Amino acid sequence: MTASVEVPELAAGPVKKSPRSPSGLGRYILVRFLLIIPTVWILTTLVFFLMRITGDPITASQGGRLTQDQLAQRVHDAGYDRPLIVQYFEYMGRLLTGDFGTTVSDHQQVTKVLADYGSATLELVLFSLVVAFAVGIPFGMVAAKFRDRWPDAVLRILAILAYATPVFFIGLLLKLVFGILWPILPVAGRANTATELLLGGVINPTHLYLLDSLRIGSMSAAGDVLRHAVLPAIALGLITAGTFLRLVRTNLIGTLGSQYVESARSRGVSEFRLVTKHAYRPALIPIITVMGMQIALSLAGAVLTETTFEWKGLGFQLYQYIQARDFVAVQGIVVMLAVIVAVTNFIVDIIVAFIDPRVRY
Amino acid sequence: MSTAAPVQPTGPGAAGPAPLPGAAKRAGESPLRRLPIVRHVRQAVGLQRGMLLGGLVICALILLCALFAPLIAPYGFAQMNDANGDFGTQQAPSAAHLWGTTVGGFDVFSRVVWGTRTAVFVIVVAVTISLIIGVVLGLVSGYLGGWLDRILVVVADAIYAFPSLLLAIVMTIVISGGQSKVVGGVMAAAISITVVFVPQYFRVVRAEAVRLKAEPFVESAQVIGVSKPRIIARHIYRNATRNIPLIFTLNASEAILTLAALGFLGFGIEPTSAAEWGFDLNKALSDVTSGIWWTALFPGLAIVLTVLGITLVGESMNDLNDPRLRLRKKPRRSRRARAQRARTGRTAAKEA
Amino acid sequence: MAEEKSAAQQAPLLTIDDLDVTFSTDAGEVHAVNDLSIAVSPGEVLAIVGESGSGKSVTARSILGLLPDTAVVDGAVVLAGGSVLTAGPAALRRLRGSDAAMVFQEPSTALNPVYTVGWQIAEGLRAHNPKLGRKELRARAVEAMEKVGIPDAAERYDYYPHQFSGGQKQRIVIAMALALGAKLIVADEPTTALDVTVQAEILDLLRELRDDFDTAIVLITHNMGVVADLADRVAVMYRGDLVETAGVRDLFASPRHEYTRSLLAAVPRLASADIASTTAPATTAPEARVQTAPEAPAEPARPDAAPLVVAEGLEIVYPGGFGKKDFQAVGGVSFDIRPGEVYGLVGESGSGKTTIGRAIAGLTRATGGSLRVFDHEMVGFKERGFRPLRKRIGFVFQDPAASFNPHLSIGECIAEPLAVHRADISAADRRRKVDELLDAVQLPGDYAARYPHELSGGQRQRASLARGISLDPELLVADEPTSALDVSVQARVLDLFRELQERFHYAALFISHDLAVVDMLSDRIGVLYRGELLESGTGPQVLGSPRHDYTRRLIASLPVPDPVEQAARREVARELRAGAR
């Protein structure tokens, strides 16, 4: 995929006659889609073998609690005493049918865990992205425009500080301030018990609490959900915003120094427009690519944020299963997250293709 | 000129045509001044200089703290009592316990100090091992290409796109998660982080190797018939690794964050085997809601400070390496002095 | 027609007084422009000529107030009655584009890749006329595109820059200036990145702008041919100083300043450039060369000896990779290089000339036909079988800055071929050999200890030659060895090349886009066009009586450093181009 052949001299023919070939874009999307398969396959294989080198999940979770015979019986029943390669093919076969296994500790289908808690994580990530975009992009533009002057200096130090602070430490500080010193916001959970009960009664729930509240038209529930979301979203969002700010700044400085911005400046285009149009749009291509990756990586941040704020999502669940040494569940969740990451990156590539005319045509 | 082929550049000869502007200045520099950090400090101006120096000072403090931990820390990291009996749990800061004690009855200040040792150890081990593996694989894969390259690229891309914390979790389970405790907790964490970073170094070095492969100076070696191992060792290696100090610093800060996150999620090192800030923060989680702030604040600040120091160094190095981002001193000369110089310059040109 | 206008009566459009610019760089402060004063009248074409580092581009940028923050500027620039250097941001914005517009060297980087060209032209209009409606903007942009000769402008309005060729991109950049009605166009090396045939078209376009709209042009260039073609008046700059200003005919006929004279003497001239014979193809035998050509042997040395390189129906195809088409760089080329002769390959970008040179050296795989180098078949070659032959081939690359490993000293670089192929000789002998080689390329012996960045471009290219001939090769491949150099440096390197070739009698493949340079050095010339060898023969044969229309166009498009002759050639070139359409 990266093994391109360099062509020293390219024909500089007259006008390249290639306006609008939708098949080209379709082909590109198809190729990118097919590239998901090896990525996911490699990760699932890697995780499977890594997790199983050291032993089977039943011994890991029930080790001290059962007698040797009971343990051997349970291992045999689950088929964990067969050759690893046989188990691997069986596991892959099950994955293809959408079966991610059953947890050892509470006998849940991993897919059910994902369905129940995935939307909570999605909601958290979306809220935090609102914070990240609202803070990161405009301030990144300001930093690039006022490069090396005081606004830039202040913003850069803040961005580095945001990067340097672990999300759970920001979380703890926020809890300390808004939970104890100045208790105006809830510091744990996704909603009050009353709201949880109300939303539990929704038919065909999306588990996105804000959406569910709006569907049943309860403004008080929606307000409660939002109040609960403020601190976790700020904790996770600020970390991501720091990265976005640096990303926007660096790329904008690059395009602001480019010849085409200079060219537009030489025609009297205003500085504001140079930043927001002429430099911003070309800078967007690398920005979006990295942002896509960053969003995927913020899933890891979500695990930590959820643990800090007892936000009952996938990450919180993962933490519980880790504590219970339930490695079937851990493996299932990790593999599922790998799929989500791969799909996110695919979507980002498609967005970039639509923004970049050189890919589109 | 009949001395052995010199390794360092010597000053320009008195005779001979003038070299490029600036070349003479660079040629006169001692090799010490060409070292990454030293060169950067000399180059830096204004804010970039402040960031770089600030970062270096913080890093030096951390290193000193790690080195002299036994002298600085009043107690051991696993110590719960002294001659006066037990420390007591969740004690507020006092003269005996500067930053108070934890829920487990440890002295917070001592654990924060000892924690620098764990942090430095993990940085050094994780980053060094991944650096060596990543650079070797990247050079060979990038220059030789072919099937090995393609497979390595796909694998590295897949791992790179994966949230590094999750991978580190999996690795920790692999290394110490089965019932066995073969490798110590600190080492296990270090190795888990290593695996996460190998693809990063691999990608950077490989990309450089691929770029350099098409450079005329490598091609001119190919035309001459230089063998592949010699090309890699002599022409690619030095040029492909120029960005390594930068990645080193950026990864070092990420290593600390990953270590802390692992500790926070309960993969940490047992409090009796080493002090680790993330683990202490995890234990402080419940303290915070009851208003006990000292158990969380100080280990957290230690993490922030460490990462901040390393990142400041890395960021300013990044700026200084990039000619587009590097600041330069403004010329400060009066109009008169310049006019004077211009006049003499012009007469000189006329005489020529 | 480049009639020299009597500019004196008109009030100047642009006045530069005592302009003085200093930059701070990594290497300390650089004084870029020294108290420069000059004026330009409406409708006048002023060329500012100079080599790299002369301060000509800095001067151009200061006209629009486009200098970077690291610059300290003194003096005055008065444009259409307004002072540029003291103008505030709003005033600067107003004058940029409407009073003076800029045309940049590299049209592909001067256009924003993610916006349509129409939008970009309209953007300038929008900045100066905020009230214009969408339709009006579009109409005006299309009109400007039509004026600069973009066919189907209404449709192409919605195209992105990458859908245009280099010459058309430059036309669009000019259209941007035109749309705003700029009274002055500052053109900074507007044709340097373009092929010579395209360059002729762009120069024609600029001339039309001047003739039709009375637009003044400040033309920044290093190419004396371009100056002769377009300029009314010439200012020569050297290291930040204005050394001479004169009308174009005066300057070429009787240059006053020493530097101007040496600059003009260094320009390679087309020896067989009789324009009359190119217009009437193959009627009479080529007349005697206008200028004394280098003393090339009439017959290639040892014509009976077996050729070193034989290409027969050579094809080189770059595989397209996943989802892309294969790219044929060279298709069915046949030629040979005999011992001791210099074979010149000339062609524009995309002609495949570099690819052929690389294939001979085994850097690129020949994919079809036959290419025999020292009787070794290069189609489907194995490195192991070819390696023993490598010591018989030297190679000189285009970019002197990139062709040396920055971490090795010049001596180590030159000695590397010896270390690889002559492991038998001792280190002391190797050093002695390096000294001899440096002496042969006229570099002091102590340069062996220097590092590549400590040498200038010309010095590096000499060292590159020394490395190329270090094993006494029978064949030297030189790929555009002088195209990255200033013209005066180029002249010295070319002299050295010829001298070494006469001394060591190696055969050479000399690749260049510059017809004059190839003609100067080569015994025989091959003309490449889009991967095909159109014709091949001695200099007088190919240049004196070209058989192919493209060759004729190539010869006629090359501007000569003589305003009178160039005016005549221009007409011929225009006719040839019209015929080609």
UniProtKB/TrEMBL annotation, chain A:
Record-linked Gene3D superfamilies: MetI-like (1.10.3720.10)
UniProt key word 4Fe-4S: no
Record's bilayer topology term: Multi-pass membrane protein
GO terms, biological process: transmembrane transport
Any single GO CC term annotated in Swiss-Prot or TrEMBL for this entry: plasma membrane
Transmembrane segment boundaries: 29-51, 124-146, 158-185, 229-248, 283-304, 328-355
Region (Disordered): 1-20
Keywords: Cell membrane, Membrane, Transmembrane, Transmembrane helix, Transport
Compartments reported by the entry: Cell membrane
InterPro entries linked: BPD_transp_1_N, MetI-like, MetI-like_sf
Primary localization: membrane
Keyword Zinc-finger among UniProt keywords: no
Positions of the ABC transmembrane type-1 domain: 118-352
Record-stated family: Belongs to the binding-protein-dependent transport system permease family.
Protein name listed in UniProt: ABC transporter permease subunit
Organism of provenance: Brevibacterium rongguiense
UniProtKB/TrEMBL annotation, chain B:
Segments of this protein annotated with the region Disordered: 1-26, 330-352
Compositionally biased intervals (Low complexity): 1-25
GO cellular component, one term: plasma membrane
Subcellular location: Cell membrane
Major localization listed first in the record, in broad terms: membrane
Family as reported in the entry's similarity comment: Belongs to the binding-protein-dependent transport system permease family.
Designated name of the protein: ABC transporter permease subunit
TrEMBL record, chain C:
Subcellular location: Cell membrane
Topology term for the membrane: Peripheral membrane protein
Keyword terms of this UniProt record: ATP-binding, Cell membrane, Membrane, Nucleotide-binding, Transport
Coiled coil regions, renumbered to chain: none
Name listed for the protein in its UniProt record: Dipeptide ABC transporter ATP-binding protein
PROSITE patterns recorded: ABC_TRANSPORTER_1, ABC_TRANSPORTER_2
Pfam families for this protein: ABC_tran, oligo_HPY
Transmembrane region(s): none
InterPro entries noted in UniProt: AAA+_ATPase, ABC_Ni/Peptide_Import, ABC_transporter-like_ATP-bd, ABC_transporter-like_CS, Oligopep_ABC_C, P-loop_NTPase
Organism: Brevibacterium rongguiense
Family annotation (CDD domains): ABC_NikE_OppD_transporters
